[in-house]
Design a protein that fits this description.
Layout (H helix, E strand, L loop, with lengths): L1 H15 L3 H6 L23 E2 L1 E3 L2 E2 L6 E2 L7 E6 L6 H12 L1 H4 L4 E7 L3 H11 L4 E4 L4 H5 L12 E5 L5 E5 L7 H15 L2
Parallel strand pairs: 5-6, 6-7
Antiparallel strand pairs: 1-4, 2-3, 2-7, 5-8, 8-9
């Protein structure tokens, strides 16, 4: 059993780039490994269906947002921790203020967090967001996209899905306070749109 644990630890450390020597020197330290999964660039984006709200209120229960319904369009899926938090407010405020230059009129943008659709409606209205916020309280979709964190919230990740349903860009650590992150996202969207 000990050999198996050491083998798994060695493999995990090599995978993450953590030097094995430092892990051996201090065995009292807890080593955490984050394995990035989810659909990689070029892979088909998993379909999903979630309830939503926008600045006008909660969407009809019988009409959840379905990724498959936007096949043929470029879709930006932004996972985020919580409504009304500093980083999330900064991210979505920037999305709203720079919507035309970041995305364009023919791009669908959705945000996904664990918050309720009621909270999403208030958040979207407070920032006058021109896109939907989807509720994933059990983090089923977040898990498929490797955006679920161990604390019960989503990590801040962004995917750009092409008209063919394949992931064309992903940022697994989107920095809402870094202008470079928005510039890279804008470039990715333009590339997918063929602009």
């Amino acid at each position: 059993m000990r050999v198996l644990v050491l083998g798994l630890t060695f493999g995990a450390l090599m995978f993450t780039g953590v030097p094995l020597v430092s892990a051996q020197k201090d065995t009292a330290k807890k080593v955490s490994v984050v394995l990035v999964g989810g659909p990689d660039v070029g892979k088909r984006a998993p379909d999903f269906s979630l309830p939503w709200a926008n600045r006008e209120g909660v969407g009809p229960i019988e009409s959840p947002y379905q990724l498959a319904s936007d096949r043929g369009k470029t879709v930006v899926v932004a996972f985020y921790p919580r409504d009304f938090t500093t980083g999330c407010t900064a991210e979505f405020k920037t999305f709203a203020q720079q919507y035309d230059s970041l995305f364009g009129p023919d791009v669908t943008v959705v945000g996904i967090s664990t918050d309720s659709v009621t909270t999403h409606g208030r958040f979207a209205a407070s920032l006058d967001l021109p896109f939907r916020l989807l509720s994933d309280p059990e983090q089923r979709v977040s898990k498929q996209y490797a955006s679920k964190d161990s604390g019960g919230y989503n990590r801040r990740t962004v995917y750009v899905i092409g008209p063919d349903g394949r992931v064309r860009y992903r940022n697994m650590k989107f920095n809402a306070l870094d202008p470079q992150a928005y510039s890279e996202l804008q470039t990715a969207v333009k590339t997918v749109r063929g602009s």
